[in-house]
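Hi D.,

Good news: the full-assembly prediction came through. Inputs first.
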Amino acid sequence: MDIAAANTRAARAFVRGLIEAGVTDVCISPGSRSTPLTVAFAEQRAVRPWLHLDERSSAFFALGLARAKGQPVALVCTSGTAAANYLPAVVEANLSRVPLVVCTTDRPPRLRDNGAPQAIDQVKLYGTQVRWAADLPLPTNETADESRFAGYAERAVRAALGVLPGPVHMNLPFDEPLLGAPGEHPAPVAVAPAVAALSRPGVAPAAADVRAVARRLGLARWPIIIAGPETGGLPAEPIARLSAELNAPIFADPLSGLRTGPHDRSRVCDSYDALVRDVAAVSLVPGAIVRFGGPPTSKALNQYVARFPTATHIVVDLPGSYRDPLALNTQRLEGDPGLVADALAAELAGLEPAAGLAEAWMTVDARARAAMQSASAAFTEPFEGRVFVELQRALPPGATIFASNSMPVRDLDSFVVSDPKPLTFVSNRGANGIDGVTSSALGHAAAGGGPVALVIGDIAFYHDLNGLWAAKRHGLDLTIVLVNNNGGGIFHYLPQAAHDGLFEEWFGTPPDLDFRPVVEMYGGRFTLADDWATFAKGLDAARAGGLHVLELRTDRARNVAMHREAWAAAADAAWRAEAVAAP
Amino acid sequence: MDIAAANTRAARAFVRGLIEAGVTDVCISPGSRSTPLTVAFAEQRAVRPWLHLDERSSAFFALGLARAKGQPVALVCTSGTAAANYLPAVVEANLSRVPLVVCTTDRPPRLRDNGAPQAIDQVKLYGTQVRWAADLPLPTNETADESRFAGYAERAVRAALGVLPGPVHMNLPFDEPLLGAPGEHPAPVAVAPAVAALSRPGVAPAAADVRAVARRLGLARWPIIIAGPETGGLPAEPIARLSAELNAPIFADPLSGLRTGPHDRSRVCDSYDALVRDVAAVSLVPGAIVRFGGPPTSKALNQYVARFPTATHIVVDLPGSYRDPLALNTQRLEGDPGLVADALAAELAGLEPAAGLAEAWMTVDARARAAMQSASAAFTEPFEGRVFVELQRALPPGATIFASNSMPVRDLDSFVVSDPKPLTFVSNRGANGIDGVTSSALGHAAAGGGPVALVIGDIAFYHDLNGLWAAKRHGLDLTIVLVNNNGGGIFHYLPQAAHDGLFEEWFGTPPDLDFRPVVEMYGGRFTLADDWATFAKGLDAARAGGLHVLELRTDRARNVAMHREAWAAAADAAWRAEAVAAP
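Then the structure:
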């Protein structure tokens, strides 16, 4: 058998299958074993290959790109630890439901587990983190390989896009010679881009379940809706319609996509995190809590919800995943959130909802929002929360704010307000890691859907410095607001902050780095913003495109104090300035 | 139950168990869930805690440290993707048999798989890559926890040091509150360092097997010994004695530890890689091939061995691991290499071995070595192979040369000669990855066993730039020879090099980076060596300590040509200059 020809035929069929299923992007890292696949991708114009030298960053880039595009992105690497470097992003893709087709290449079976170089056990390497894992057969160079390998590709895309989207793992063994000499390498046949990409099938809720939940909601005094984080955003119009039918406030996490945009936001509550920290909030007793999306970013809101164990808790989610850590839900409604919201709204149409609760929440919400924004504006020294106020004001419609985990995503939640200007808010909230954040944001930017601003702390920025290489290599546009408090700001909110002798070394953990040289090494422009005027000017300059890092130096301890001040001001304004009529 | 007290008690017992089993070092990354363990480690003086901000680098640092010390090193991280970042180093530790006690901390079981923040499926996260994986119970604050958690720690160390050393995975769930307030946190009790660290039990070969193999060896005309790579090095004296009994040449991979040092090297062959590339080498037919350690680094030597399928192939290895990718071995001998070599030598004592083969090999070896060294010296332009000639000359006895994968380890093999000055040669040859190399070398340096020089290419250097942070944070001494050929030099040896249209973009993959700023950001000194005089001066300057990066810019295509020239010169000198009497 002509092994090189067999490899080429199988790899081309596999790539054709991916393209025909709608894959338009692949992230490739250099290596030898992956040669057949890399070449098969590089030969096609219908798929864009993105080169990455660090597989960890590559996978996070693919994650960001797939999330922004709402379609699967492929990954290709060589055998060995290269594949192991994908695991962090695979975990994130699993939990945040982002479709990835992870293609690891491998030694043929006879060279496994017997000391062959660069051979590790790649079969089911990602364990429970993937929707489907297949160890493909060796190419045979028979005609059947054409449909066989294209078929694996189609199955991979369908599995990644399935009822519950996520990563799939294709392990592709190739024998040597991996590639024929130029004269023997057949000319590639161009594959046309997919006329219609595969798309996810919808999951319609069971009619009986919808009726049962609608009945409960109709009976409940004062339901509230929580719109939690969801990859790609929740369907704004259907949920807004449901909230109208119920006259229910929507506690809209920024990652739900419901906080800004043209939909009906008359019941969208944005300052609940400050509101529910105050004991007064329990006076507005919800009789039913309907949650779309994952548990909200706000720890305070999660704790608030847990204060009402006897309320009717309804969790709307896709089959195959239970996101209810507090085990509160009395009824689960399985289906696509848009279909569920529409079905519930239809069932409830004509109901005369109780007045009062939504109005009360909107009153206190407006007061809290105003107080938070004034507090933020009053802090003339660098205040981490104000970064989001400035960004929401400065960014054009359609722009994206990507918030790193740890503090930025919490500040996003606290300081971004309900607003007609549509902005997209994104964060890696599957596993909440601080790894791969820059690469994820660059992947998002690579999708070309408008300007992207990443807000990130110094430890997360250090963790994925390698990610910046892609900005240079691929000429990407990204504004990074580097909130540099020299260490782990979030730990100041935890009990260990009181342990003076241990805290700074093991939790504060200052990196003590001046990031300017490394940003410049990757071709980025670096601006140190000492005040808000410089910050605004820096944001303005970033519009020119390319990689721009705008560093804001903050003080961890002061930042905690300013946050507490802002929350206290918001609670005072909301609950104590003037009584709210509890319905 | 006082949960904080329970956490403290269990974590302290676990740390005590590790210390009493001989663990002296732990690599810790910051996080919240890991607080009880981090604090328990930080409170003890008998164990040195190394802070790392990037878990991937942390695990490779631990690997390097554990390999250098020959004893298990512990790792601690928080829950979530932090744990996933350990996988690449866990894979390497598995295959290169380095003992690691990987401690991931986790949410309590009730908060798993239900959408709780920063909770991923960590149970058996490393799959088949670890010797033992345990999901520990939640602390109970009962007295039994003292011996229970210390017991888990002891088992972990024993499993990591077992018959086949390697990584183990302890997943430790902790509930909140993770830590008591300072006033309620009990004062730590100092744990004394282990009087006697646990050590690996030896595996003695079965006497019948030894007799059978000795009989075969005694009958075989002209046996040869291959000393392949082995973590910690192979036992030099016993293998040298066996070679004397058999009058067998030892083809000594630098990673076997047999190429330099005070042992009998009169039959140590160092230039086999150049020799066996020539067809003339088949004239010296080996009747038996005994291999200690893993398959040799030299691809040419592996191919050479495969040319004699009818010879007696004996593989000496530990139980539980088969390192014989060519499936050649006719007899496997299980046991510790020192015990096996001693037993075989004893069995063969008094045998009058056939003269001739060793002498012939040593003759051609001396000629090839001289030719390789002259060729290297004759290249006045930067030649990658010469780096090792210069290092072997300049480094003091007891120093370590750490070779990255891809080209450096092959040049190490080709250019380091048999020599009485003892040097240690190290490389990550389990999975042969180019990831984590800098961190592994820094971990080796942290063991304090003499100066360490790392030779690394630009792509591998880029891959683990984050590793440099540890050099700054912990004030480590490391000389890095950065062989910068702006891309993947090894691919020039592969068939794809002929594909002009694809090669440079997908295999050459130039990073186009000037590394000076990032080295300086991490507090290192950076020297660009244009010629060998500057290079030597740079090596000299590096003796002052700290992090020193000495960059040598080379040309990938020229480098291939120079290598081919050197190999041809060596083969000519060895095989054609003067006939060797084939025995």
